[in-house]
Amino acid sequence: MLKRFLILTLATAVAIGATVMVSYADKPSQSDLQDAKQKTQAAKEELAEKQQKKANISANIEALESKINVTKAEIKSLDKKINKAEKKMDKLTEQFMDLENQLSLQESYLNARLKEMYLTSDTSVFNVLLNSDNIVDFISNMDMIQRIHNQDVKTVEELAEKQAQVEKKKQEITETHDMLVTHQQSQKKKSNELLDKQKELIEAKAAAGEDIAEAQADYEQAKARQSSIETDLAKPDPVQIPSGGGGDSPSAPRKTPALGNGIVADAKALLGIPYKWGGTSPQTGFDCSGFTQYVYARNGIFIPRTSSGQATGGTKVSISDLEPGDIVWRPGHVGIYVGGGSVIHSPQTGDVIRYTVASGFRYGVRY
């Protein structure tokens, strides 16, 4: 049993040493930096393009809003004109009916007068002749009868003409009313079309906002990657140490503020890489301690492989005294403090390297 334990321990040490060596064998080149800059620029341009697209959509929405308001105002004006026309139509209809009643009464009265004047014995031409003293008197009486008749006829004609004028006016108002209704229906259709278009643009604006968020994340990741490469290129070649070396090795550099910033930049460059139990590289994924060991190794600091080993391999500090680049620990789990109360860690199976809060950890470890 002891022999088997020693073999497993030796195999683990060899694996740790190999991980450290592989991590440092991959120091980026100027070509890598140029490629990273091109990707950062491309991500920046794509972000700007999507931001401009959203701005254009917003401008179109504002323009549509103005058109919709104008159309609604015109519909409101048409409503008033239609109501006014309908009131005129009602008034003219009432006036027409009143004239028709007057005309009917006048015609009845005229017929009665004619009947009285020409069909009764009292008003016959013969009686007029008999009751006349002479021919002059007869003509005068006949002229009076004719004038009465003409006045009655004239009254009827005037009523009929007035009724015709009212009917004509009513017809004109009706045509205007129908024209207004047709125009109103057209404007309502236009308003509905504008509202539908506005709804489409609002949905497009929301989608553009999501695209911008994705582009922003891609741009930030590209910048972090570029920054990480620039940091790596500025570092001296690391000092190689024997396999299994820890933070207490005399050949390992101590963490300084500048080195802490390099650790933070490297940690950010790995955001989004999937969790993998036992993982120690960006190609396959990381577990929590594989992630912290990899980032530290890239900065020339070689720490133990396990979370418990990392928790005891350096100087313990309180959460309130953390500095960027420090290891943070809680039972069975570690991460890297990046400042501002935030930690980057590789959480669990099915998750990815991401941010969390430092308050969830018990203490920090400084190497």
Q: Helix fraction?
A: 55-70%
DSSP strand tally: 8
Strand-pairing-aware structural class = alpha+beta
The rounded distance between the terminal residues' Cα atoms is: 35 Å
Read across the widest sheet, the strand sequence of neighbours is 3-8-4-5-6-7
Radius of gyration over alpha carbons? Answer: 50 Å
In total, how many domains does the architecture comprise?
2
The CATH class of the largest domain is identified as Mainly Alpha
State the assembly state of the protein chains: single chain
Largest sheet: 6 strands, antiparallel
- The residue-averaged pLDDT reads 79
Number of helices: 7
Q: Residue ranges: pLDDT <50 for 5 or more in a row?
A: 1-25, 238-252
Describe the structure.
By secondary structure, this protein is an alpha+beta fold. It folds into two domains: 2-27 and 237-366, endopeptidase domain like (from Nostoc punctiforme) (endopeptidase fold (from Nostoc punctiforme), Alpha-Beta Complex); 57-221, Orthogonal Bundle (Helix Hairpins), CATH 1.10.287. The protein is 68% helix and 8% strand. The protein has helices spanning 2-25, 30-118, 125-130, 135-234, 257-269, 288-298, 307-312, and strands at 280-281, 285-286, 315-317, 327-330, 333-339, 342-345, 354-357, 363-366. The strands form two sheets. Strands 3-8-4-5-6-7 form a six-stranded antiparallel beta sheet. A two-stranded antiparallel ribbon has the order 1-2.
